[in-house]
Amino acid sequence: MTSASSMESIFQKNAGLTERNYLGLSDCSSVDSSAVSGISDVKRNNLNLKATELRLGLPGSQSPERDPDADLASSESLDEKPLFPLLPSKDGICSGSQKIFVSGNKRGFSDTIDEGKWMFGSSGTDSDTSNVNVKISPGAQPAMIKDATSKVAPQEKTHATFGTNLNKVNASNPPAAKAQVVGWPPVRSFRKNILATNSKTNDEVDGKPGPGALFVKVSMDGAPYLRKVDLRSYTTYQQLSSALEKMFSCFTLGQCGSQGAPGRESLSESKLRDLLHGSEYVLTYEDKDGDWMLVGDVPWDMFIGSCKRLKIMKGSDAIGLAPRAMEKSKNRN
Amino acid sequence: MFPEEVLEHVFSFLNSHTDRNTASLVCKSWYEMERWCRKRVFIGNCYAVNPRVVIRRFPEVKSVELKGKPHFADFNLVPEGWGGYVYPWIVEIARAYPWLEEIRLKRMVVTDECLEIVAKSFRNFRVLVLESCEGFSTDGLAAVAANCRNLRVLDLRECEVEELSGHWLSHFPDSFTSLESLNMACLGSEVSFSALERLVARSPNLKTLRLNRTVPIEKLSTLLQRAPQLVDFGTGAYSAEIRQDVYSRLADAFSRSKNLKSLSGFWDVTPAYLPAIYSVCSQLTSLNLSYAATRSPDLTKIVSQCYNLQRLVVLDYIEDTGLNTVSMSCKDLRELVVFPSDPFVGEVDVLLTEQGLVSVSQGCSKLQSVLYFCHQMSNSALISISKNRPNLTCFRLCIIEPRVPDYVTHEPLDVGFGSIVENCKQLTRLSMSGLLTDRVFEYIGTHAKNLDMLSIAFAGDSDLGLHHVLSGCDSLRKLEIRDCPFGDKALLANASKLEKMRSLWMSSCLVSFGACKLLGQKMPGLNVEVIDERENVNSLPEYVPVEKVYIYRTVSGQRFDTPDFVRIMGKDKDDLFSDKGLKVAVLFCSNFGTFRPCCCTRSRSL
């Protein structure tokens, strides 16, 4: 029986094939193995394939000789319409399971961000992205894998379901600023937002805070009522300040942060600091310790971790804040 | 041949389950003798055996310990409704063991009805430990409080409890004085403080008291004064406006707690109140500050005084400098856990790197167990750690970004982890992360002969990786894998190994429906559970990989309390998931919440 050699050939093919990346393996060994032959050669030399040859047997059988009846991946299944076809076929259906992952080439982190979420192994369920099946691989950029990926074009979808699902998901999910993988890192839910739960005010507790909303009150000098914003829906000071500007624009006569131009410009971090020098309004926040600080001094994530509420103050009132804010953040770092 | 009394006396010295199991295999009479005098039963997978079989074999049990869901359920990888219901067990043991004293459950679904049965069925019930359990409410706790006259331990560890009111605590009758341990840290609702105070005051044997977040810091001194014999104390929210009188009372109360060895709690810390614990630091053997979002200087000041510390759980706020202090001050340290303060942050503004772990491994010669979350790692750091601490038994490293290579050389971390398994010969538990190829699994298969549990994520290149582990790790009992390119071949080729293990979890891998079916058909001693929530799952061809598969050995055959997204492969004639024609098997399941039939059985030919 040729199972011994065919098993070995499975290994050799595997060693060669999967060296590139394991997702979206475009193709089978018939395509361009030269790109990775270097790697696979090294692999083959390092591994004693004979020693690691798969042994199949029923439970309890210790004999190294194979029990033909017990082979679970035996030729019996190979002779039938194969569960585990060994040879690549022309239409792109290749050995075992590699053909499935058509869309999931490992990408650099930035690529993943740009495209937002993609489906790993697809899912027929709804677009509830917080649910199980949406996964992202924001891996770092291992150089060799990335090179290999770029050499092989992403393949046609061999299974219709995966294709449609992928398109549906890409369309319906806006890009996430920080891609999140379900269940990763392996931290239990109640640990996930120590930072958030330590900084929220009492009113804004939702039942189970996810890495979700972080609402803080925003008040403005002279405005008749407060607003609330979800700090986690922004990722930069710029986004926050433009959102606030839109929210409070009905109250402002002048502008935040410009010298005479109409106040529809978005603010930048440096502009926030420049506000001290006499402009109409500045954005300040109260931190966990109860101190009022100027928004924009510390990195964004530190800011949302310590911000309890926001206040849009008149520039003249805020002048005294600056030195303290600088000192304080110096002490922190 | 020894007379029975002698055997029984000898067996009474055997406490570990493995020793007892081994003794029972010696001969028939030892088996018989042993089973009659076994008092504690541990079942690592509630679906591995039927309660009736357990009861038939061990008629005189006083303590039952059960585990339900797979470990990855902790990270939301097991969908709600999967199973793990303790109800059928409770019903059987209530009938069979009226003198049962202890129940310990982990990752199981426990309903109020279960708790009521427990409360009313066991006259001498003493210990209830529920770890990572869910499905019950404070009403169930009230039933336990009201009825278990001899309760010693009520320990709710990280459970998800439906909070109807805090009134449950007041159900402990005034005549109830036997409490030794109360852990309610995971509860959210406020209990009556006066009821709590009176309970503490009338419990002279109270050694462990872990409060929940709602108990304010101002009240802590009252409780500490009531219970100077406390050994293990967990505070509530540790924050308030800074008031000298509150602080003084608290510091004074701590200084009088001469028996205190373990501290935890510390939610919402106001740093100014931390020095109140300084007087007990040198007594502490265990300190959990993992909810204290306070910066390194405060944390370092504390740990620098904890000369006798054996177990430290902190956030990464401690930073490398703090860990360096630990390495110099905590010479008795056995276990270190460092959790991430904000796991989803892209930028890193906390100065905790691999260096912190390296220094602790250098300075703390008794360090055995590590759980460490960080953002970067290098092979040389791992090698250093392994050479510094060959006595490590548990090494769990989570580099937060998946597939991150050695940050210095940009190579995979194969060699580093290889060094860990090669040098740490007593390693029983390992979790890996970072960029890893098949090579690391070759190292593991070759060296990790004592490894009992292995957790793998985003690693490996091919089936060869899985094959190395399954064929090489002689002691492996629990293997959990996610997002790795491991498929059918390695799994099927090592089918017999699976019967020597408790369980195997694989999610987002490349294991096909067909392989699962084949495995289930060929291996009657295994349940091969495919967990797949896709709508079109019944129409997927057999070569398509499953979302998740959970394989475990069992002597009780397939279970019948599965939801529609779980399919036990290879046991039925027709292998469809059936979402129509479900029958609710009342005998084996109970309702979870108000309107939620949580279990079903599909029609099958008998």
TrEMBL record, chain B:
Keywords: Auxin signaling pathway, Developmental protein, Nucleus, Ubl conjugation pathway. It is found in: Nucleus. The keyword DNA repair does not apply. SMART domains: FBOX (SM00256), LRR_CC (SM00367). Pathway: Protein modification; protein ubiquitination. Pfam families: F-box_5, Transp_inhibit. GO terms for cellular component: nucleus; SCF ubiquitin ligase complex. Residues 2-43 form the F-box domain. The keyword Nucleus applies. GO terms for biological process: auxin-activated signaling pathway; pollen maturation; SCF-dependent proteasomal ubiquitin-dependent protein catabolic process. One of its GO terms (molecular function) is auxin binding. PANTHER family: F-BOX DOMAIN, LEUCINE-RICH REPEAT DOMAIN, L DOMAIN-LIKE PROTEIN-RELATED, F-BOX/TPR REPEAT PROTEIN POF3. This is Putative F-box domain, Leucine-rich repeat domain, L domain-like protein. It comes from Helianthus annuus (Common sunflower). The lineage of its organism: Eukaryota, Viridiplantae, Streptophyta, Embryophyta, Tracheophyta.
